[in-house]
Amino acid sequence: MFGAAIPVIEAAPKVFLNIPEQKIARPVSTDSSLILIPFEFKQSALFHAFTFEVIDSVVNLLLKNDKITLSIKGFAHEDEGGDSVCKWLSEDRAGFVKKYILGRGVEETRIAFTTGVGTEKSANSIIDKNNHALFFRVELILTYPPPPPSIISDRDEDGILNEEDGCPDVFGYAENKGCPDTNAVIIPFGSKEDWLSHFTYTALDSIVTLLQKNSAYTISVEGHAFKTEGTAYYCARLAANRAEVVKKYLLSRNISIDKIKGINSFGSKRPLNAAKNQQEETANSRVQIFVHK
Fold it and tell me: What dotted CATH number matches 162-292?
């Protein structure tokens, strides 16, 4: 049963037997690895060279990476005796492996726990490559630290990577190469509102005065909403309504329709900022007016 080396089983949880140290690596799909250490029937001491090689490879990994911890669980089989005998045998097996690992220079703080569970069934697979069930065993569970958080190179948090962002330190939008609109007159709206408020008339009247004094000037109007105001469909309608109400106000002030060269709605696709607070979030509910000379 224990005469030949057993290679890595390429499935999660991973089972390792008689493998070189460099092959014990973090699995892609889990944060721990399972290693089975077989014992002889009714024995709590190790005799086979290849099992020592496996344990030594675990020791080497622990010594090289101080972030990895180890758990040790001993198991027995009902054929080996009564409940008390199997409990003692499983504990002795776990203790033997622990003492050997400590003797190889691993600090005891690296071992999360050591226990013997008697004939209790394991949640892990105990079947080796040759379809042998390793009933008399110790399970070593290597637990790896979580990976470091991904570093996103997006300083202005506009969703555009720095290397692709024409303005990496200023919030912008993709269609403008990551840069903001710098020449827009902002007409603010209340959240989920599409009607003019008292604080919008000053800005709108400045546009009216400008157009009346400069006959060659024209404007374009853009409606915007923010994603927290509703669904994408709702935001598109809301932004369009905002642009329309601004247009109607300008027309009511005797601005010719010929002066308004475009009415567009971008829904929630072009926020002004990352909305880190309530004030920033509210600022995204707006109309932008562009003056063309």
Answer: 3.30.1330.60
- Would you mind telling me the total number of residues written for the chain in this entry? 293
Crossing angle, helix 232-252 and helix 201-213, to 10 degrees? Answer: 50
Q: How many CB atoms lie within 10 A of CB 57?
A: 19
Residue 47 has a CB neighbour count (10 Å cut-off) of 10
Q: Which CATH superfamily is domain 15-143 in?
A: OmpA-like domain (3.30.1330.60)
For the segment 4-34, what is each residue's pLDDT rounded down to a tens digit?
Answer: 333 332 333 333 333 333 333 333 223 468 8
> pTM for this one?
0.52
Q: How far is CA 53 from the centre of its chain?
A: 37
Domain ranges of the chain: 15-143, 162-292
Q: Which helix (H) or strand (E) holds 290?
A: strand 286-292
Q: Give the C-alpha separation, 288 to 246, whole Å.
A: 10
Cβ-based neighbour number of residue 134 at 10 Å: 22
Digit-coded pLDDT (tens) for 124-172: 888 766 777 889 999 999 999 888 777 779 999 999 999 999 999 999 9
Asked if residues 188 and 214 have their Cβ atoms less than 8 Å apart, the reply is no
